[in-house]
Design goal:
two-stranded antiparallel ribbon, 4-stranded parallel beta sheet
């Protein structure tokens, strides 16, 4: 799940290590979905492509009408993907709540990370890697 080397993140930043959530099983995502369901009520789950798609699929059986949209991703590094997708899916003032499995960088106030990578692991040059 954790890999060391030079990796180009979705944000374009070169990272010295990465969290590879592609190795997570459907059962892993189903377990995480139960944790999210116990914390938030949501009317729909939308995954940031491509890392958030499987997470959103695991969350969809737990949707309940009348609640905010849940936007999810596997790994947050800069937060730009979450911010971009929030603007895309937001309809007027409809609330959007974000959840990510891992946060390895600063997290927007509307996003809830399930697991946070400690600051001391971050790259001194970029603060993200």
């Amino acid at each position: 799940m954790f890999e060391h080397g030079a990796f180009k993140g979705h944000s374009g930043v070169t990272l010295p290590w990465k969290v590879n959530c592609d190795t997570m099983s459907d059962e892993d995502y189903a377990a995480l979905a139960l944790v999210v369901r116990s914390k938030f009520a949501f009317s729909q789950a939308i995954g940031v492509p491509t890392g958030g798609i499987r997470f959103a699929e695991a969350l969809r059986p737990h949707c309940v009408d009348g609640y905010p949209t849940l936007l999810v991703d596997d790994v947050l590094t800069t937060g730009r993907s979450m911010e971009t997708w929030r603007r895309i899916i937001r309809d007027g003032d409809e609330p959007v709540v974000g959840v990510v499995v891992f946060a390895r960088g600063p997290v927007p106030s509307w996003v809830w990370p399930m697991l946070v990578v400690q600051e001391w692991t971050q790259c001194r040059g970029t603060g993200t890697g």
